């Protein structure tokens, strides 16, 4: 079955960086677009970034543009989210997503202190 396992979250000071990873299994990773979302309690889930199946095109939310980069390694069945210049408002649970079939991981928590 489809499994998405996020890792790499943690506590970081404002201005710092983190790299999130999402290890995928149970499907042919290289043929699917993948994405990242984030969620804060009491708010709707927010789109962060998406990457095409072959990595040749990405889409990033305006709120993180210029600071976050999505990438993938199809040989490792992994999608990444490099987060730089983190702000307190980036604090959230970050979730990996396979849009086709609407599959989600459990998330990894990111906390940015001011």
Molecular structure report:
The protein has 114 residues and is mainly beta. Helix content is 0%, strand content 52%. The protein has no helices and 11 strands. It has strands spanning 3-7, 10-13, 18-25, 34-39, 46-51, 58-60, 68-73, 78-83, 92-98, 103-104, 108-113. The strands form 2 sheets. Strands 2, 4, 5, 6, 9, 10 and 11 form a 7-stranded mixed β-sheet that branches. It is globular and about 40 Å long.
Entry keywords:
114 residues; four-stranded antiparallel β-sheet; 0% helix
What's the helix count?
0
SS elements, strand count? 11
What is the string of helix and strand elements? Answer: EEEEEEEEEEE
The whole-number mean of residue pLDDT values reads 98
Beta-strand content bin: over 45%
Q: Could you tell me how far the N terminus lies from the C terminus, measured between alpha carbons in angstroms? A: 40 Å
The stretches of 5 or more residues where confidence is low (pLDDT under 50) are none
Task: Label the structural class.
Answer: mainly beta
The percent of residues in helical segments reads under 10%
Outline, from the CA principal axes?
globular
Largest sheet: 7 strands, mixed
Calculate Rg over CA atoms: 13 Å
Write the layout of secondary structure elements.
Layout (H helix, E strand, L loop, with lengths): L2 E5 L2 E4 L4 E8 L8 E6 L6 E6 L6 E3 L7 E6 L4 E6 L8 E7 L4 E2 L3 E6 L1
Can you describe this structure in just a few lines?
The protein has 114 residues and is an all-beta fold.
